[in-house]
Amino acid sequence: MSGLVNKSLDSPDEVRPFEEGKGQLELVNIEGGGAVGRATFQPGWRWSKHVKPIAQTESCQAAHTGYTISGHMKIVMDDGEETVMGPGDFTIIPPGHDAWVVGDEPCVVVDWQGYVDYARR
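Structure for Cupin domain-containing protein, as requested:
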């Protein structure tokens, strides 16, 4: 990649909706640099219900490196380790987890590692 790049998640290259209208992923593709995405997870969203049918895996197999803008999400790893991420949190999540929105506020996360194939149909 050479030169200056300026892209906006407000004008994404691709939008991928989650099942049952429970949110969406907005993705910008960076030439030679992968993809960066902003996901909005609506209250009631759960990976095992709203993305698992798309991914067709038992748990989320994407590795995430993200920053939470708003809302809260609980992540539970396949081995039982868990955390809740919220506004201002930087989180690294290895493959093998479930996650769900906590509370009645949408959870908005920017991720620059795990969204390339996330919720791809």
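The longest strand covers residues 23-30.
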